[in-house]
Design goal:
12 strands, 2 helices, 7-stranded antiparallel sheet, elongated, Type 1 dockerin domain, mainly beta
Amino acid sequence: MTLQQKVRIDTLDCPPPLIQMEQTVLPYVGGAYVTSISWRDNGSTEANYDRWIEGGVFYVSGIVDIQSVANERRLFRFRQEYDLPSEWRFSDPSFGEACVEGNEVSLLIEESLRPGGFVETAFSYWVTLRRSADFDNDGEVGPGDLGIFLLGWGGDSVILDLNADGIVDGIDLGILFTDWGWN
């Protein structure tokens, strides 16, 4: 599974400008180690973290360093977002500092720094993943998906087994109806 990643740094301007951070990604089996760096005239940000998927859970853990060179106190924000491919859903609320909304998980770290200030903040979060009930890949869950699902009733299809308990049953049907109309 490939995750789209967006990492940004912004400061307290109105509206805050979003600045793409330079990234180095070192993949390993099941995950990646990422270094993201941003320099601005008022400070710098460096984030080093691991992200991986294991046993149907998406994990992120790391450290962000923020250094201010502004000549007045500034609020710095580090924001990290991941969009899942359409065939996946986050099935449980996030554990840790992140927020889950729809098919996106995001993290926001805010630090108010005096001139010359520095802060190092550790972060970690994890969310449970599950397959989407959009089996016909038309962008929404509807009658076509229900038909496909019913054809696999009682079987062990990994795609139709939405709660990954080894059987396509009423629990999975409930999840399908929870996704109904979702796109």
